[in-house]
Amino acid sequence: MKKYLSVFKISFQQEFVYRLNFIMWRVRNVLQIFLIFFLWDTIFSDPGRVVFGYDRAKILTYIFGLAIMKAIVTSSRTIDVAGEISDGKLSNYLLKPVNYFKYWFTRDVASKSLNLIFAVFEVTILYFILKPPFFFQPNPLLLVLFLTSLLSGVLLYFFLLFIFDMFAMWYPEQGWGPIFFLFIFVEFLGGGLFPLDILPAAIQKGLYLTPFPYLYFIPLQIYLGKLGIIESLWATLVAGVWILVLGFTLKKLWQAGLAVYKSEGR
Amino acid sequence: MDRAIIVDHLVKNFEVVERKEGLLGAISSVISPKKKIVHALQDLSFSIQPGELVGFIGPNGAGKTTTLKILSGLLYPTSGFTQVLEFDPWERRNEFLKQISLVMGQKNQLWWDLPAIETFELNRAIYEIPKREYNESLKELVGLLDVEKFLHIQVRRLSLGQRMRLELIAALLHKPKILFLDEPTIGLDLIAQKTLREFIYDYNKKYQATILLTSHNMDDVVDLARRVIVIDEGRILFDGVLEELVSRYAKEKIIKVYLSKEDDIKRIETIGKVKRLAFPQVILSVPRSTVAIAAAELLQNFPIEDLTIEEPPIEEIIRKVFKGETRPKNVSK
Predict the structure, then answer these.
(1) Are A95 and B104 a contacting pair at CB < 8 A?
(2) Which SMART domains match (chain B) (predicted)?
């Protein structure tokens, strides 16, 4: 455990080296919130208007919630794994008594902590500028379920990204392509652009069988009280099954990948 | 444990896709990739005793680095048996990894954006080195390699030589029993090379560490290794003590003479092959068996001020081995 505490510390330091990159990344996030906020604010300019079952207060809470969710779930350094595999840097870790998955998960946690601190700060400021109506979930059980689903989202994203990184073991030069592909799925099907429940019911049903809605959308729905206790528990279970399936897939891919790993360039 | 490293009939093949040059070539290799099997190692067998320092020599692409990577658990062998400290390297058990280190002169493990001391601290945690032991080793290594003043500077701002010394510290903090060094002196100036060589020599002596070293720099090999393994195209051409390599492959010896006054060079040519002539120095190459007679003749018939008999440069011998001028009849084990 102490190993990973050191990994956490050094990752945090590393993030600080690229301060400007980090700040610009945050600025981009703030601008994105502004953009989406004004888009929906215009749609809901008539206060009594309800679109797709969302009124002004709910949609704006969704957007603000999304900003925090993204900081927690998708802030990740694990995208670098494909690069490490293709340029052979992975060798450095294979040579050491360290678990590569735990190592990257720790680096993710460091990145998430830093992003979360900034996201909370930004959202607070934006809250005072934009003065959106905000919804606080009072039910402690739902809050616990929300936190559980949030953790599931983090793990799911970690496994998904790592699985797509594994592509680089077989095709070192093509490591990035599949990851961009994944990003599109995460953004659309995860509810990063619009709440998924505005889609036709049939599509939604199919979508809930994939792991993507459990990244942002479902945790936010639980928080907003749009899912009942039973439905929330069911969603948590589905996410749990996906975690097991993806974890197992990753393990198998990792073992097969190492057997063909060429340790190039080193 | 009587042998630290055992390699038996080791084979490693790589599958590579050949790419043709140019844009059309790139497109055609996407549409119909031409795959080729590269036989990096073909039936390699050797073993190394604990505490031995062995030089691994061979031209580019001979399979040296591939062997080191298999022995440190990075690559999966196609077939054959390997054992290091009684472990199968491929399993990469923590107890195994804690006892080995692989240093590659070309690449680094130090965190590029942070001072080296941060990587050292991280390694301390990863290798679970007790604080006191860590402080002692660090102090000793920093002193020996004289890098005190670079510890707190971002690695990216250091020169290659400074970085290489720090790399070595990062690789040795956990006091590995087995050390794989791949071109450790590549790109270093002469002084840095010497420092590094002396350090490797001392480390081997002090900790009884088993060291397998590859290098194109023959000084590294001559200074450090008593035993050498020469490999080419994935096969062992020679395995034995350095002197034996010399006596087996160097059919000739070198006589260097300093003449006290200019003499008839034509006459000298009857004694041996003149390799270089720059008055007063003449360098001759003569068959090993007749070197004593040749020297006596020179001393008797020429105005000689000084005469030395030497082995030909090791590079030349190795070159001959690779060129196949003198293929070995039997490979000693």
Answers:
(1) no
(2) AAA
